[in-house]
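Checklist before submission:
- one chain only
- standard amino acids only
- sequence pasted in full

Submission:
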Amino acid sequence: MDKPAIKKKILDFTIDGVEKFLSDHPGLEFYAFAYDCTASEAEIRLCFNTEAEFQKTLLQYHNGKYAHRYQSAEGIRELRYNTGDWEYAVFDSLDVMTREEVDKTYDELNAISYNAYRDYVENLQVTFCECLLDFTSSETYKNIPKTADFAVFCFDHDEHPTDSDERLERVRGLYVPGS
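Returned file contents:
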């Protein structure tokens, strides 16, 4: 994995995608931006949501079959940060590596051990977190219309959100943006 090249590719993609999205959606204010990732596939999806769209979704869920799940603060928080329910989920996506590169890496590392492959996937997810933190230092990020409680996060689609949150906080504590 050529980490500097991958990081540049991701940061350029994020800046270009967010700038285009903001240009196409003027007047919106966002409460969150996310990298919705599938690290095992080397894929990143960009996502935004607004408070107005969240309130529409919450009302829909409050009136739905599973309304009981969205009465508690925890249930509401889970819905608020579930990009699958966002209005602007996956407004752009990037395959960081080709399908052939992903398959080759999987085969090579699995030949060593499954743990070698899992370590690779975790390292790639850490790289995604570093790119998100680099993005937060950009002019494009500064130009995002944000609510006071605006949040960014980077999660892997194949893991529990708590694991993703803990990873981002761990990376945030160790990483110097731009390095």
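Reviewer check: The chain is about 55% helix and 20% strand.
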